[in-house]
Structures are given as C-alpha cells and as structure tokens.
C-alpha cells in the first residue's frame, strides 16, 4: 500500500482534522479530504489543492461509495461513539484499513469486537492514534518490559498551558454523569470518577491528579495484559471534593435536557487551543508499574501540546501502516502493540526524562 495516495481523512474540517491535514501536507502526503458538510470540505480542500469527497454516515451505500479506491481511512469525526460503527463497517465491506483518534472506551471496545471480521477481511483496525493513547500505550509497554511481573499499572497525563477542544468536550459530554472506570482483575469495572487522588511528580513540576476513565484502561490491557490499571489526569483538590457529591448530581447530568443545554454552551463557547497554546503548551505522561513483591518502576515522558502531538502521531502512524501489511499483521491493534514502545520516541520533541533503571521497592 502506498500511504501517499488513496488515504482519506474523514471529519477533516474539525479542529483536529485540520491540524492533521496541515501536518500531512507538510510531510508531502496527499490525503483525500472528506466530511458531511460540502462547503467546509471543499473550502479546506481548495486551500491545500487536495481531492475531496462529501458524504454523511447515515447511508451505508453513500459511505461505501465515498471509500471507493481508498486504502486507508483516518476517522477524525467525533464524538466517535456516533461515527465509528458506520465507518468501520464500511471499511470491513470495502476492505479499507480503519484508523481514528478516539479515546472513548465504548468505541475501543466496539472496534475490538470487530477483530475477527477485520482479520478475515485482511484490514487493520487501529483506533486511538492520537495523544490518547499513543504515548500512554507506549509508556505502558515500556514499563511492562522493565517489570515483567508487574500487575498494577498507573498512567497519568497532563496537558499544560493549553485547553480542551470543542470535539473533546463534546465527547466528554456524551458520558457526563456516568460513572468512571478502572481495570480490576482484567475487567473494566465501574468506579466513581475521582475515586483516587494522588500528587503526581512530573519531573520539573507536580500536580494533583484524579482517576478518570480513559482509553488506556482498554488498550493498555490489550497491549500489556496487565490486570489492574488506573488512569488519571490533572485536577484541583476542589474538583476532587465536589466529585464526592457525584452520586447527587450525576442523575441530573444524565438528563437529556441538561446534556443538550451543556452541548449548546459548548457549541457556542468552546474553541481552540490557539496557535500560541499549540506551540507553547506541553504535555506530560507519568507511568508506574508495581509487581506482586512491591517492586515499582516509574517513568516520565515529555511531549508537545496534546493536539499538536495528535497530528504528529496520527500522520506518523499513517505512514507506518504499510509495514503491517508487509508483515501480514491485521485486525485490531493498539499503536504500541503494532509498532513497539519506541514508537513515541520516533515523534519529534517526545522524550523520556531521566529514569532509574533499577527497580526500587514501593513505598
Ligand atoms: N485521542 C486524542 O488524543 C484526541 C485528540 C484530539 C481530538 N480527539 C477527538 O477527536 C474528535 C474531534 O475533535 P475536534 O476537536 O477536532 O472536534 P470538532 O472541531 O468539533 O470537529 C468534529 C468533526 O467531526 C465531524 N462530525 C462530528 N459528528 C459527525 C457525524 N455524526 N457525522 C459526520 N461527521 C461528524 C464534524 O463535522 P461537521 O463540521 O459537519 O459538524 C467535524 O468535522 C473528538 O471526539 C475528540 O475527542 C481525540
């Protein structure tokens, strides 16, 4: 497969889609742009002189027609819970590799259920090629290699000096008021959001983090087989205190009316990150693995701002997909499972901070 032609970015006109298009073109790639809004897709394609296609995801025939002659799709249209199934099913019918930038647990689980069909069709299903989960998936595998009997994994991330995009907030709203999750004994179980609070030392700074349900609960379980996994992100202690009352306000947040109201606010008010934030912000990932004897190994990754990183990782992975075909590797794959834990260090400005190679006892 030639990655430089015959690959399509669906949802190209979104905030992250545009970043990915810009970066792909800067790498000499010529993706076909696609989405459901003709004027937006056409205008974007004109800026870069790229081919474009316009189709929605409601009609399977239209999606199939939109994928004619395409070898790989990078789906950037989120919330993915509304888009992945139609696109992935079309990819199975049309024998097209499917990639996306989701971090939604339900989507990862849904795509994994298509693993057998994907293997029969000879296609790759690789969700989560962005900030969630490329660096954390690589971190999980990196730690698992250094502590082979490790059975408890903590992954924490922070995005500093930047903000959340419209699409990310919209995706979070699809689950607002729902319980969080942790992987316990190999299974993903419901747990209150913020059940755990920990001060994470990122290296140059530290912050409070709370447990949240993140894509790595699913993907790190697949790529490492570790049975107990917690995922965390930065939060204030005040938010952590408020979350103690979630059993009171969660039923309200689940009301359709409340969600519609919040989505309308997001549609009107949320945009960015700005150009300055993209280029001056940065992200950190902390990982810790603990074995049954109490041995603990930890590591830290320093990364570019998370949306910029998403463009870098997604385009890098698009360029490496042909290797999988040559190896005959198909089906559902996490990024680190497909390309190994060093994948993240192939991305500019991504590096592990100094780390102890000696396993040390847990405190
Ligand atoms: N994994 C990561 O680290 C990571 C990083 C960045 C973003 N993301 C995820 O990527 C998604 C997009 O984020 P964003 O900030 O780029 O969002 P955005 O600016 O709101 O753009 C969303 C794009 O998806 C399209 N879209 C949405 N629903 C659709 C549907 N039902 N059918 C067809 N097209 C649809 C939109 O098309 P219209 O313009 O026609 O509405 C738009 O092009 C979010 O789910 C976000 O969480 C993940």
List keywords for this structure.
Rossmann fold, binds NADP nicotinamide-adenine-dinucleotide phosphate, 363 residues, 17 strands, Dihydrodipicolinate Reductase, domain 2, globular
How much of the polypeptide forms β-strand, as a percent range? 15-25%
What would the CATH topology of the largest domain be? Dihydrodipicolinate Reductase, domain 2
Total of helices: 15
- For the record, what is the CATH homologous superfamily label of the largest domain? Dihydrodipicolinate Reductase, domain 2
Label the structural class: alpha/beta
So what's the CATH class of the largest domain? Alpha Beta
Number of strands: 17
Global mean pLDDT = 94
* Count of discrete structural domains: 2
Major pleated sheet: 8 strands, mixed
What gyration radius follows from the Cα positions, in whole Å?
A: 20 Å
Residue windows where pLDDT falls under 50 for at least 5 positions: 357-363
Give the CA-CA distance, first to last residue: 50 Å
Instruction: Please give the CATH architecture of the largest domain.
Output: 2-Layer Sandwich
Q: What's the helical proportion of residues?
A: 40-55%
List bound small molecules: NADP nicotinamide-adenine-dinucleotide phosphate
Q: Per the principal axes of the C-alpha atoms, what is the gross shape? A: globular
């Amino acid at each position: 497969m030639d990655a430089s032609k015959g690959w399509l970015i669906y949802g190209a006109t979104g905030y992250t889609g545009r970043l990915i298009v810009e970066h792909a073109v800067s790498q000499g790639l010529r993706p076909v742009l696609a989405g459901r809004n003709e004027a937006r897709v056409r205008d974007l394609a004109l800026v870069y002189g790229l081919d474009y296609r316009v189709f929605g995801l409601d009609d399977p025939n239209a999606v199939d027609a939109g994928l004619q002659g395409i070898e790989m799709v990078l789906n950037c249209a989120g919330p993915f819970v509304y888009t992945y199934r139609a696109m992935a099913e079309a990819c199975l019918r049309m024998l097209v590799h499917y990639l996306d930038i989701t971090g939604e647990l339900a989507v990862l689980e849904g795509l994994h259920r298509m693993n057998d069909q994907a293997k029969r069709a000879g296609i790759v299903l690789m969700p989560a090629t962005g900030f969630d989960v490329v660096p954390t998936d690589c971190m999980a595998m990196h730690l698992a290699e250094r502590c082979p009997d490790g059975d408890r994994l903590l992954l924490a991330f922070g995005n500093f000096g930047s903000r959340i995009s419209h699409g990310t907030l919209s995706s979070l709203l699809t689950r607002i008021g729902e319980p969080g999750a942790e992987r316990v004994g190999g299974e993903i179980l419901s747990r209150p959001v913020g059940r755990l609070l920990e001060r994470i030392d990122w290296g140059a700074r530290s912050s409070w983090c709370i447990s949240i349900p993140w894509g790595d609960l699913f993907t790190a379980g697949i790529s490492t087989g570790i049975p107990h996994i917690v995922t965390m992100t930065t939060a204030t202690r005040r938010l952590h205190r408020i979350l103690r009352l979630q059993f009171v306000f969660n039923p309200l947040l689940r009301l359709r009316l409340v969600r519609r109201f919040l989505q309308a606010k997001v549609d009107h008010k949320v945009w960015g990150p700005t150009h300055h934030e993209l280029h001056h912000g940065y992200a950190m990932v902390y990982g810790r693995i603990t074995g049954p004897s109490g041995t603990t190994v930890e590591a830290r990754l320093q990364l570019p701002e998370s949306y910029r990183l998403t463009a870098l990782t997604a385009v890098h992975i698009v360029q490496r997909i042909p290797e999988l075909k040559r190896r005959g590797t198909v089906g559902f794959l996490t990024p680190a499972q497909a390309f190994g834990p060093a994948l993240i260090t192939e991305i500019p400005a991504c590096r592990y901070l100094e780390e102890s190679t000696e396993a040390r006892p847990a405190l």
